[in-house]
Amino acid sequence: MNVGVLALQGDVPEHVAALRALVGGTSPRAVRRPADLEGLGALFLPGGESTTIARLLEAGGLWDPLGARIRAGLPVLATCAGFILLASRLEAVPGGRNPPTWGLLDVSVRRNDYGGQRESFEEAVRLDGVAGEPFPGVFIRAPRILAVGPGATAFAWRGTEVVGVRSGAIWGLTFHPELSGDPRIHRAFLDAAARPS
Ligand code: GLN
Fold first, then answer.
1. CA–CA distances in Å: residue 139 to residues 60, 119, 144, 195
2. Ligand 1, residues 15, 79, 84: which to mutate, most atoms within 8 A of Cβ?
3. Band of residue 25 on the pLDDT scale cut at 50, 70, 90
4. 3-class state of residue 147 by DSSP
5. 119 in catalytic set
6. CATH of domain 3-194
7. Which atom of ligand 1 is least distant from the CA of 99?
8. Which pLDDT tens digit goes with each residue over 56-73?
9. What is the reported pLDDT for 197?
10. For residue 50, how far is its CA from the centre of ligand 1 (angstroms)?
11. The model's pTM
């Protein structure tokens, strides 16, 4: 299966490293332009700055074709900023502006809701469908999920708070599994993506 990482801005090298470790040294495809979507079997949307990533997607002519591919069932694992771009509703952020979104994950989200860089933290995350110890959740200027609509299913929690949802082949997380050195989420996502639905 051709696995890609959206490589416009953000923690792209960390996703690439996590994937290389998993798939035995093969590098995933860097997705930067519409032609890179051809034959793609799964895509990772990294964290970073969602307003910047959205602007670069639009400038490169990738916003519409990528949105269409995801809508048509392309398996996507989106973390943090990438997750924000999929949300159906973004709450206003005081003194800030929000990026456009594809609106493909039925969640209401507020960006930077835990605070700035200095309030970034690591905390155990409980995962449905992933065996073993609680997952080490790395939260960096993370968005907060304020509500989950009927179109999405929660599968990751920090205490009682939802920090990860799924909808069809789309997985969205407010934390960064690529930074924790724990491959279980990447592996579970790729296993699901490889199974015909
Ligand atoms: N705060 C960033 C945003 O709103 C997301 C942070 C991240 O991806 N680690 O886009």
1. 29, 9, 10, 30
2. 84
3. low
4. strand
5. no
6. 3.40.50.880
7. 10
8. 999 999 999 999 999 999
9. 62
10. 6
11. 0.95
Q: Is 38 a catalytic residue?
A: no
Binding site membership of 87 for ligand 1 (Cβ less than 6 Å)? no
Q: Is 123 among the residues known to form the active site?
A: no
Decide whether any atom of ligand 1 lies within 6 Å of the 101 Cβ.
no
Is 120's C-beta closer than 6 angstroms to any atom of ligand 1?
A: no
- Residue spans per domain, the chain: 3-194
SS3 (DSSP) at 26: coil
Q: How buried is 179 (Cβ within 10 angstroms: 0-12 exposed, 13-18 middle, 19+ buried)?
A: buried
Cα separations (Å) of 136 from 14, 64, 76, 79? 16, 34, 21, 14
Which residue among 80, 119, 123, 133 is the active-site one? 80
Cβ–ligand 1 distance for 14 under 6 Å, the answer no
Question: Can you give the pLDDT at residue 196?
Answer: 65
pLDDT digits 0-9 by tens, 35-57: 999 999 999 999 999 999 999 99
